[in-house]
Write a structure and sequence with these properties.
The chain is built from 20 helices and 11 strands. By secondary structure, it is an alpha/beta fold. The strands form 3 sheets. It has a 7-stranded mixed sheet with strand order 3-2-1-4-5-6-7, with helices on both faces. A two-stranded antiparallel sheet has the order 8-9. Helix 8 packs across helix 13. It starts with a strand and ends with a strand. Bound molecules: NADPH dihydro-nicotinamide-adenine-dinucleotide phosphate. It holds the Pfam family 6PGD.
Length: 477
């Protein structure tokens, strides 16, 4: 046995992770259901390092040093279970099985329990950064046992992205914590992309600017607080010209956004935990709306707008307003995502360090951004921070942009530009900071029709009013 680690599943992601490991001087055992992929990897990239290819899974396992560490990088879902079922009988106590695919975290919880019962370590790990990241340094979010991290962690840290010399990989927490955090990462990615798309639309409709001009604005924004991978690629996309038509590329792309499901999972979990992740939810529904073809056809040209053409008086003021509104909305979306991590951590007993999550998202992954440093700092100041927005830095940052944010949301409403994520983020901000919410009325209604009881502002205990009788109030025991 010579290999330090093995990878089974050598499509784009597995192939690149294996190459990345080999380039970091690890001896990498290789296996894929269809052996041709293994052969082509060694043929094309054999000089990346030392590979030990095997056609049979038995030989693959036999080539691994103990404790054996196997990364599974196959299509998420049934394929992962199929591979685990084949692999497990070949392993021995203390071996480590890593699922680096995009598993749904409840599956990871189930698999971890099953493998733990057999004396194996099962590590569900999030990997973000696509093919490029897998090869050159992804952000890695491993869960499972802390004990397994002693063997696995140093290897994953080696191949992860580095920011200021710090690896974008850390132990996340037990069970499904790693895949959970990856899921929320993707949910935040949905929100971030939707906010950027709304900012683009506002600039387009408010200023009548061309895609390329807006590309210039995004490129400029990428030099400040908003600096991030997504803002950078937005500038790039907006500058791109379609070769076939000579039009701006963005204008020849059909306006229907697809999704693979991680946004939906995040929203479903937000509902389960009762965490208002409105930015992620609006972003997920906005994609759904874009794909609601019959509804859009029925509405287009039929539903009136009752708006005049948008007249922006001062271009520079408007651009700055959009920038500030984008930043403020983004803070809300991230704040909500980190709330969801905190809620899940408490619910499932994971003890996740939110500051560390922001740290490992600074590089390698899709939402990598300068601003994540600020989030890490906020949780370093107060690890139990109940609301990211309540950290002094973020409170001030949002307060600075508040007037801009209100002008933009009001202007969008008045001019019929849909801004679900900008608007709902502002509504969340006003809701969470409200002295008193109309929830009091809802609770009274619930007591009226369903005797669901209520609590009073002026005394403890639970009360009910006899709504259909003499309206006397009784205190429930
Ligand atoms: P795919 O999701 O396209 O999966 C293809 C791989 O799965 C092949 O190696 C295939 O083997 C193997 N496979 C499928 N079914 C089985 C089975 N029943 N038994 C054994 N092997 C099977 O590959 P990707 O590289 O795109 O992604 C791998 C994982 O990484 C997925 O879980 C994905 O969600 C995740 N991921 C992908 C990212 C990306 O940007 N693509 C980013 C982050 C995570 P064969 O060659 O024999 O068909």
């Amino acid at each position: 046995a010579v290999a330090d680690i093995g990878v089974t599943g050598l499509a784009v992601m597995g192939r690149n992770l294996a190459r990345n490991l080999a380039r970091h001087s690890y001896t990498v055992a290789l296996h894929n259901r269809t052996h041709a992929r293994t052969v082509s990897l060694v043929e094309e990239h054999g000089d990346d390092g030392t590979f030990v290819p095997s056609e049979r899974l038995e030989d693959f396992v036999a080539s691994l040093k103990r404790p054996r560490t196997v990364i599974i990088m196959v299509k998420a879902g049934a394929a992962t279970d199929a591979v685990i079922d084949e692999l497990v009988p070949l392993l021995e106590e203390g071996d480590i099985v890593v699922d680096a695919g995009n598993a749904h975290f409840p599956d990871t919880i189930r698999r971890e329990e099953a493998l733990r019962a057999q004396g194996l370590h099962f590590v569900g790990t999030g990997v973000s950064g696509g093919e490029e990241g897998a090869l050159n340094g992804p952000s890695i979010m491993p869960g499972g046992t802390r004990e397994s991290y002693a063997t696995l962690g140093p290897m994953l840290e080696d191949i992860s992205a580095k920011v200021d010399g710090v690896p974008c990989c850390t132990y996340v927490g037990p069970g499904g914590a790693g895949h959970f955090v990856k899921m929320v990462h993707n949910g935040i990615e949905y929100a971030d992309m939707q906010l950027i798309a709304e900012a683009y639309d506002l600039l387009r409709q408010g200023l009548g600017a061309s895609a390329a001009e807006i590309g210039d604005i995004f490129a400029e924004w990428n030099t400040g607080d908003l600096e991030s991978f997504l803002i950078e690629i937005t500038a790039d996309v907006l500058h791109h010209v379609d070769a076939a038509t000579g039009s701006a590329f963005v204008d020849v792309v059909l306006d229907q956004a697809e999704q693979k499901g991680t946004g939906r999972w995040t929203v479903q979990n937000g509902l389960d935990l009762g965490v208002p992740i409105t930015g992620i939810a609006e972003a997920t529904f906005a994609r759904a709306l874009s794909g609601s073809v019959p509804q859009r056809e029925a509405a287009r040209g039929t539903l009136p707008a009752h708006t005049a053409a948008w007249e922006v008086k001062d271009r520079d003021v408007f651009v700055e307003d959009v920038r500030r509104a984008l930043y403020a909305s983004k803070v809300v979306a991230y704040s909500q995502g980190f709330d969801q991590i905190a809620a899940a951590s408490a619910e499932y007993g994971w003890d996740i360090d939110r500051g560390a999550m922001a740290r490992i998202w600074r590089g390698g992954c899709i939402i990598r951004a300068r601003f994540l440093n600020r989030i890490t700092e906020a949780y370093e100041r107060d690890a139990g921070l109940p609301l990211l927005l309540a950290d002094p830095y973020f409170t001030d940052a949002v307060a600075d942009g508040l007037q801009s944010w209100r002008r933009i949301v009001a202007g969008a409403a008045q001019n019929g530009v849909p801004t679900p994520a900008f608007s709902s983020s502002l509504a969340y901000y006003d809701g969470v900071r409200a002295e008193r919410l109309p929830a009091a009325l809802i609770q009274a209604q619930r007591d009226f029709f369903g005797a669901h009881t209520y609590r009073r502002v002026d005394s403890g205990g639970v009360f009910h009013t006899e709504w259909s009788g003499d309206r006397s109030e009784t205190q429930e025991s």
